Amino acid sequence: MLAQAQWYPGHMARTRRQIRESLSLIDILIEVVDARIAQSGRYPMLDEMVQGKKRFIALTRDDLANPATTNAFLRRFSERGQVAVALDARAPRAVAALARDVAKDAAGRKGIARSMIVGAPNSGKSSIVNALLRRAKAKTENRAGVTRGMQWFRLAPAVELLDTPGVLPPKIGTPAARWKLAMCGALPHNRFDPREVAEAFHRWLLLHDGNRDVPDLATFAVQRGFLGKGAQPDLTNAARAYIRVFNEGAFGRISLEHPDDAEAA
Ligand SMILES: Nc1nc2c(ncn2[C@@H]2O[C@H](COP(=O)(O)OP(=O)(O)OP(=O)(O)O)[C@@H](O)[C@H]2O)c(=O)[nH]1
Ligand SMILES: [Mg+2]
Questions:
Q1: Interhelix angle for 194-208 vs 235-247, to 10°?
Q2: What are phi and psi of 230, to 5 degrees?
Q3: Of 12, 42, 87, 127, which is best to mutate to test ligand 1, by the most ligand atoms within 8 angstroms of its C-beta?
Q4: 4-163, which class in CATH?
Q5: Is residue 40 lining ligand 1, measured as CB closer than 6 Å?
Q6: HSE-CB of 7 using CA atoms within 13 angstroms
Q7: Domain extents in the chain
Q8: What residues does 55 pair with on adjacent strands?
Q9: Which of 46, 52, 101, 265 has the fewest CB atoms within 10 Å around its CB?
Q10: 105: confidence class by pLDDT, cuts 50, 70, 90
Q11: Residue 88 Cα to ligand 1 middle (Å)
Q12: For 134-185, how does the pLDDT look when each residue is reduced to its tens digit (9 = 90+)?
């Protein structure tokens, strides 16, 4: 896998600094986490950042995650006294409960309530912003690093919301956390080898969820006609498609982490 310095882009360091600098303005933090990687997809520095603020955790990609695993994560958060909801971030109706929670908390404050949305790249932050606004005002796209700068939105006359670019910790804890983040689209495409990631995923699946009918990369390449020179499978392009197909849910609803796993990141 790639060395830390290669995958950790400078703009993320800048974003981390900007998030810290904005904290003094913020009353409410909305932490956005892909439900399929609800450990490595979290931002470890948030616990110290949250001091004195209200925090809501939004587990996105509920539609792609294993429902039993998502429920186990929700129970775990609730046992820790944290407010968490699972949702499909693209659906305004699904985000309504979160919108109500934020509005209720904001109503109990004097003056303008300022909220900030934070989370890993591609976790669904801007989608939540758009669903909360009920308008597509923030740019969204299925790759890491779409939101480039901080952007304020007015959610209600007395509620403001700050969308931020995705952040990852400067050091990703383990090789497993790295391939899981890559598999879920949280690492920029030029920062990992798709073959390594697809193969690591399939090895993991055989160990953890062996009854699923998910092809390995080589089989997938042949099935989908990814042929390179000399009729050899073109595994690099096949791996890119493999990761895309996983993120479209075609392999089924698969979560890569469970709250009973040892902390991954
Ligand atoms: N299936 C599914 N797709 C989602 C969900 N939430 C977001 N997406 C898609 O995931 C992609 C990334 O969403 P964004 O809202 O741009 O993510 P972001 O966290 O703002 O990403 P960056 O700005 O790059 O850090 C988009 O293609 C969304 O449509 C979800 O709950 N389920
Ligand atoms: Mg964004």
A1: 50
A2: 65, 25
A3: 127
A4: alpha beta
A5: no
A6: 24
A7: 4-163, 175-247
A8: 29
A9: 52
A10: very high
A11: 9
A12: 877 888 888 888 888 899 999 988 999 999 999 988 888 899 999 999 999 9
Tokens of 44: 């470890």
Residue 7 pLDDT > 50 = no
Q: Does domain 175-247 have CATH number 1.20.120.10?
A: no
Q: Would you list the DSSP string of the chain?
A: ---HHHHS-HHHHHHHHHHHHHGGG-SEEEEEEEGGGTTTTS-TTHHHHTTTSEEEEEEE-TTTS-HHHHHHHHHHHHHTT-EEEE--TT-HHHHHHHHHHHHHHHHTSSS-EEEEEEESTTSSHHHHHHHHHTS--S---SSTT---S-EEEEEETTEEEEE------SS-S-HHHHHHHHHTT-S-GGGS-HHHHHHHHHHHHHHH-TTS----HHHHHHHTT-B-GGG-B-HHHHHHHHHHHHHTTTT-S--S--TTSPP--
